[in-house]
Amino acid sequence: MKLKLLLLLLSLFTFSAFAQKRYTISGTIRDAATGETLIGASVKIQGANGQAGTATNTYGFYSLTAAEGTYTLTITYVNYQNVSRAISLTQSLQLNQEMKPGAELNEVVVRASDRKNENVRSPQMGVNRLDMKLLDNVPVLFGEKDVLKTIQLLPGVKSGGEGTTGFFVRGGAADQNLILLDEATVYNSSHLLGFFSTFNADAIKDVNLYKGGMPAQYGGRLSSVLDVTMNDGNNKQFGVQGGLGLIASRIKVEGPLVKDKSSFMISARRTYIDLLLKASPDSSLKGNTLNFYDLNAKFNYKFNDRNTIYASGYFGQDNIGIKNLFDNDWGNTTATVRFNHIFNNKLFSNTSLIYNKYNFTVKLLRDAGNFGITSLIRDYNLKEDLQYFSNNHTIRFGVQGTHHRIAPSEVSADENSSYNTQSIENRYGAELSGYVSDEWNLNNRLTLLYGVRLSSFFLLGPGTFNTYNTGGDVISTQQYGSGKVARSYFNPEPRFSASYTINEQNSVKASYNRNTQNIHILSNFNSGSPTDQYVMSSNNIKPEIADQVALGYFRNEQDNTYELSGEVYYKWLQRQIEYKNGARLIANAEVESELLFGSGRAYGLEVYAKKRTGRLTGWISYTLSRTERKFAGLNNGNYFPARYDRTHDVALVGIYKLNNRWTFSANYIYNTGNAVTYPAGKYQIGGLTTFYYTERNANRMPYTSRLDLSATLEGKNTGSRFHSSWSFGLYNALNRKNPYSIDFQDVPGDPTRTEAVQTSLFGVIPSITWNFKF
To answer: N or C: less crowded end of the chain, CB within 10 Å?
Structure first.
């Protein structure tokens, strides 16, 4: 009898549980003043029947499912007034919400995400999100707000050199970072040889850096993803903003085409160093060129609540030249068209058609005849991404196809030149991939993010393809017609992350991910150079592979005012690429014969402490790491440090808001010198000194230490729409001569002795910028 009663109670409970109706609430969150969608806004419902929460996606869309009942809906976003309202969930609802700016405007807020304890609860590891307002106060070279230089102050990210925008993430090379601008790949992200980035901060809405536990929707690079999203444009009213600096000026214009339905944004930036050179009384400077310019543009149109189209583009160009000697021009072009469609309150779709191109031209101007070197890489990309929101699951899945064309370095010469024109075959390839991932909230403590990406690469004709042995000799040659597959590769890329929340203030996380890469850079430089040589995977070059595991502890203190985290990681790298000693990389039709292939490893500890709110905000980051490579043809087959290996990296950033008008900030960095190869000895032949070398990268550059200062003075609030501010800065305020390079030479007058000569680029550099907005 008791058993029957128990079975009856269980059946009634089960029936009640399944009979309980569940409904979905969904919508889009926007800025009430501009109509911009808000990325990562926190949406939460809480009531007697339970609670649920989520964050808006890249397009401001959210979806929540809960049992029938009465709830309190709360929407929060940093620097915005909270929204709280009662809802009765008796049917599925569509609720679009506009949020008003104004909360916490008297405080500086530093964030890595918008939900106050997102760093604790999210299963994602190794991710940082930049608040674009933060860039207004972080001092950088020449006073220009710069995304790439700011991320170099985060743990696990190493700079490519003093004052440059190149960066390395968790032991990966510079070309192992996937840099996206509105989903379009940016192959060279620097202006003026790396001293400025291609990203005009006025045009940028959102920046996310993934260092580990990379989501399955990203692929094609081994080490990191820097995902940059442009502003959509104000669909409420017209506005203009910009700035005048000592080196460059910028302007942005935005406004509605159809109020509340369509908007545009155009932002432009240009240096005027070349104009100063023209005005110089020094005849050796007149006629030289040194400038860059870039243009960002975006347009969107909302057909209705379910369908929106976006079109965006970027164009940037650099010109550096010394009269009668050389001209060096390079630039990026990207174009993206995206169509958002909401099928229902649970299924969101984004379709993207993407074009990107990077090209460079180097011209040498000689009395005996001119010649030039040109190269480009061009992609066409089609993507389909979908998100499905179901109870405690957020499922993402999609497909992607990319067609590559690489025009290797080609030499063109006039009839008077001592050089011969040389044409090298274009290379064509296609990447096809599909992915699926699921973020599963098992309960209030455990969240899983798991998935897999299936990637494939096809090397395509037309062309002649050589296969080389380890000595660089041709062992076979094959020709393929247009569109024929010369070589193919298939690789599964599993991804997994987990977060266990001990309580609202503490959690532990773990992750594993595999990535593959089929576009590679051959470079003699530590960070990106305009003349970097791009190559595809081929019958000689196999896809690079990286496996990374990570474990972390995350803790918040004092109502999420302080964030603390520590992460350890280990990365295995396969099929890494190096060039042989004395290799010729540019304008070499057989460049693949100059390459060596090996493995690598990287491991480290990252510590991060951040104060989010109050008058004084900022963070401290510390990285302890090693990065090593191993090639059979180098260093006797033993592991040796990579060029960008640094043991210690420290960054301190402080921002102090004195009052409503004055904000002061400072950052200090210290890092161990890069690994370099110094000569072990020398000998003389015919009176000329020749140095010889033994172990690769067995020595260290001197350490780098730098203090930067800045102050921002806001204009008086007159009640009008016009607003202005002044930014003052001191880069390298202590005037330390940090090493950029070290060369060795004979001591003048005594060739038996050797001296090291250090080159330093920057002493103390002041800057001043006037910013305006109306």
So the answer is: N
Q: Distance (Å, rounded) from C-alpha 40 to C-alpha 76? A: 10
Q: Evaluate the omega torsion of the peptide bond into residue 462 and state whether it is cis, within 30 degrees of 0.
A: yes
Task: Kindly report the three-state secondary structure assignment for every residue of 44-111.
Answer: EEEECCEEEEEECCCCCEEEEEEECEEEEEEEECCCECCEEEEEEECCCEECCEEECECCCCCCCCCC
- Residue 758: CA count within 13 A, CB half-sphere: 13
The backbone torsions φ and ψ at residue 729, rounded to the nearest 5 degrees and listed phi first, read -145, 155
The CATH number that applies at residue 83 is 2.60.40.10
Helices (H), 177-306: 273-279
pLDDT at 492 over 60: yes
Is residue 514 left, alpha or beta, with left meaning phi > 0 and alpha meaning psi from -120 to 50? beta
Strands 184-185 and 196-197: unpaired
Please tell me the total number of residues recorded for the chain in this structure: 774
User: Is position 408 within any domain?
Assistant: yes
Dihedral of CA 634/638/641/642: which sign? positive
Tokens describing residue 134: 């933060």
Tell me 101's DSSP state. Answer: B
DSSP 174: G
Q: Could you tell me how many helices (H) and strands (E) the chain has, helices first?
A: 4, 50
pLDDT in tens, 231-249: 999 999 999 999 998 888 9
Total domain count, the chain = 2
What the block records as the tokens of 56 is 């808006």
What angle is formed at CA 388 by the lines to CA 384 and CA 389, rounded to 5 degrees? 150
Give, in order, the Cα–Cα distances in Å from 364 to each of 321, 523, 535, 702: 10, 20, 24, 34
Does some domain include residue 142?
yes
Closest CA to 211 of 604, 670, 651: 604
Q: In what helix (H) or strand (E) does residue 10 lie, and over which residues does it extend?
A: helix 2-19
Question: How many other CB atoms are there within 10 angstroms of residue 490's CB atom?
Answer: 12
Structure pTM?
0.91
Q: For residue 315, which amino acid is it? A: F
Centroid of chain to Cα 400: 20
Q: Do both 70 and 144 map to the same domain?
A: no
Residues 167, 671: Cα–Cα separation, whole Å: 14
Query: Would strands 741-747 and 204-210 be described as parallel, antiparallel, or unpaired?
Result: unpaired
Residue 504: CB atoms within 10 A of its CB come to 14
Residues 637 and 766 in one domain: yes
Residue 553, in any domain of the structure: yes
Tokens encoding 101:
């700016």
β-strand 157-159 against 190-191: which pairing, if any?
unpaired
How far apart are alpha carbons 67 and 83 in whole angstroms? 22
Residues 536, 486 contacting (CB under 8 angstroms): no
- Residue labelled with tokens 């889009």: 28
Which two three-digit tokens encode residue 693? Answer: 């070398």
DSSP string for 293-318 = EEEEEEEEEEEETTEEEEEEEEEEEE
Beta strand pairing call for 688-692 and 224-230: unpaired
Note the helical H segments in 48-180: 118-121, 147-151
Band (pLDDT 50/70/90 cuts) for residue 394 is very high
State residue 159's pLDDT score: 85
| pLDDT tens digits, 174-208 | 889 999 999 999 998 888 767 788 899 899 999 99
Q: What is the pLDDT of residues 554-574, one digit of tens each?
A: 999 888 889 999 999 999 999
Residue whose structure tokens are 């001296």: 755
State how far the Cα of 382 lies from the Cα of 401, in Å rounded to an integer: 5
Considering the domain architecture, whether residues 81 and 166 belong to the same structural domain is answered as no
Residue identified by tokens 């984004």 is 350
Are 65 and 156 contained in the same domain? no
> Of 525 and 217, which is predicted with more confidence?
217
- List the domain range (segments joined by +) for residue 98: 20-105
Q: Are 518 and 546 in contact (CB under 8 A)?
A: no
Same domain, 585 and 510: yes
Question: Would you say 166 and 158 are in contact if contact means Cβ atoms under 8 Å apart?
Answer: no
Is 675 a domain residue?
yes
My answer on whether 506 and 641 are in the same domain is yes
